[in-house]
Amino acid sequence: MHTPFGRIQFSTKSAAITLCSEVLLVGVLLGVLIGMNNAGGGMHEGDQKSGQYGTIHASKMTIEAERIPLLTPHEHVVGDSLYNPSHHQLVSSDVIVVPEDIWVTGVSFSLTNADAATLHHAILHRLDRSDPVCPNYAAASVFVFGADGALRQISFTDPYALFLPKDTPLLLQVMLHNPLPPYGPGKEYTNVRPMMTLDVEPATEANNKVPVESYRLHVSDTPCNVTSASGEVFSVPPRTEHFIKKGEEVNGMNSAKVVFPADGTIIGMGAHLHAWEGGEQVDVSVNGNLLETLASEKMSDAPWSWKTAYRYPATIPVRKGDVLSLTATYSNPGPLSIEGAMGMLSVFFAARSTP
């Protein structure tokens, strides 16, 4: 199974469990095959990981990725890509099987025993659905958190929620990037624990919500490429000011745009850039007209303390057939190309219900 960061094979076994706020809930997690590919960061066939349990206590479902006994720093210089194998550590959870129909009303991400700046991304994949933006990806991104994300917790405003039916297979993938200054704190960390927590409610006839869909867009030199993790990055030429990377169509797919399937509302969006190596802003447009500029801002004296703007909550009406697209802007005054630049957008959309 191809995801945007490589190939997964897995097997699952569901458990007959009732959703209850005070009862421990488990999904049986078996058979995830995960490895690192030579291109840096992809998942493919490899050593089988032992299963671990996802739990729900008091209406919270926790998904924990593999613990990292030792996270060591590395040197990063201009021209390096964080997708080089020596420049990141990629860990995943086992497959979590959703035990009952649920509404996800909120989500948060935490990283225990390491500086938050060491996170590059955390993505919760839904493995029973192809990606709506890059349909050749055999997994859809449900929730995305990035190092530069100003939000580490999202709560949907009522009546919005994301629906997950019983037996939905989920997998959390986390990439850590721990460069020496000035690109990161560059310290040594032990027993690092990446974790995503979902706020959930039973999805019953008496508990009706407006369902939310998640879209993840990106600009790339090789968009929607499943052969390596480098399919979601691009190069920034040397000695360029405000270089704009746009989306392009390849094999009938454009990773930098989505066509809305119905009238509805954008209820939130957030961007991801590598501001620490020249990323400046993500521009979001609807039908070619600028909707929002999500710029990066340095938050403290620490040279790696960049955060990229978000818009949440939002109530942006769109019509069926409207096209949402993005561009990413970088500057590179140096004599070498910037490799591994990223420009990404995560969007939450709710279709208008029909009588």
Could you explain how this protein is built, in words?
This protein has no helices and 30 strands. The chain is mainly beta. The strands form six sheets. Strands 3, 4, 5, 6, 7, 10, 13, 14, 16 and 17 form a ten-stranded mixed β-sheet that branches. Strands 20, 21, 23, 24, 25 and 28 form a six-stranded antiparallel β-sheet that branches. It starts with a strand and ends with a strand. Residues 1-53 have low confidence and may be disordered.
Give the ordered list of helices and strands: EEEEEEEEEEEEEEEEEEEEEEEEEEEEEE
Radius of gyration: 20 Å
Q: Give the N-to-C terminal Cα separation.
A: 38 Å
Main beta-sheet strand count, sense and barrel state: 10 strands, mixed
Mean pLDDT: 82
Count of DSSP strands: 30
Unreliable spans are 1-53
Shape: globular
Separate helix tally: 0
What is the beta-strand fraction?
over 45%
Based on secondary structure, the structural category is: mainly beta
- Proportion of helical residues: under 10%
Describe the secondary-structure layout.
Layout lengths: L1 E2 L2 E2 L1 E5 L11 E9 L20 E4 L2 E5 L3 E4 L17 E4 L3 E2 L4 E11 L6 E8 L13 E7 L6 E3 L4 E5 L4 E8 L12 E14 L7 E2 L1 E6 L15 E3 L3 E7 L10 E3 L4 E10 L5 E8 L2 E10 L7 E3 L1 E2 L4 E3 L4 E10 L5 E4 L1 E9 L4
Parallel strand pairs: 14-17
Antiparallel strand pairs: 1-2, 3-4, 4-5, 5-6, 6-16, 7-16, 8-15, 9-15, 10-13, 10-14, 10-16, 11-12, 11-15, 18-30, 19-29, 20-28, 21-28, 22-26, 22-27, 22-30, 23-24, 23-28, 24-25
Name the descriptors.
355 residues, mainly beta, 10-stranded mixed sheet, 6-stranded antiparallel sheet, 49% strand
